[in-house]
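Troubleshooting log. The previous run stalled partway through. Resubmitting the same two chains, unchanged.
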Amino acid sequence: NAGVMQNPRHLVRRRGQEARLRCSPMKGHSHVYWYRQLPEEGLKFMVYLQKENIIDESGMPKERFSAEFPKEGPSILRIQQVVRGDSAAYFCASSAAGTDTQYFGPGTRLTVL
Amino acid sequence: EDQVTQSPEALRLQEGESSSLNCSYTVSGLRGLFWYRQDPGKGPEFLFTLYSAGEEKEKERLKATLTKKESFLHITAPKPEDSATYLCAVQASGGSNYKLTFGKGTLLTVNP
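Second attempt completed without errors. Output:
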C-alpha cells in the first residue's frame, strides 16, 4: 500500500535556477494538492489539480510558480528563477474523488543558496 | 478569511500525564475539521476527521472532540512515542471546500 510519494526529498538550488518537485498520489487517488510550509509558519495551500486540470491555483505566487498533473505520470510543481525566500518544505497531498481526507507525502525540502 | 489557532504552542508532559490540546477556528461554514500528526522531517499523518458539533473520535490514547468554535485533542496516559507536532486544519463549506487551512501546530514532548 504505497502512500503519496514525493521526490526528491531534498533539493538544493542556487538563486536563479529552476526547481522541479514531483508527486505521485496514492493508488486510486485522482486529486492532488500542493502545500508549502515556511519556517515557523503553518502549512499553506498552493494549488489543487485533477488529471490534466488545474482546479484552483489561488494560493500560488503569480510569477515563477506553475503546476501540472498530466494524464500520465506524476504531478509537478515547478519554480523558475528561485530566490532565497522560496526555501521551504513543499508537501503534496492526494485524495480520492468524493472524499474529504487528504493524505500527505513526506515532502521536498528546498534550499536556495 | 478562515483562521485556525492552536494552543499551547508547545507542551511538555511526563509519561502518563494526561492533557488536552486546543484548536480554535473561525470559518464561514464548517465542512470538516482534521487532526494530523507530524514528526520531524516527515509529512503530516492523518488522525481524525470531525464533521459536526458533539462528534468524538478515538484512536488508542487520542480522542478528538468538536464544538461549534473549537476542537480538543485529548491525550490519555501519553507515552514518549506520542511526541510530535499535532496539526489542526479546517475545510470550509462552499466554493473552495477542498482547501485545508492549518494552524501552526502544538509541539508535544512526552518525557519518560
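Takeaways: The radius of gyration of chain B is 14 Å. Chain B has a mean pLDDT of 95.
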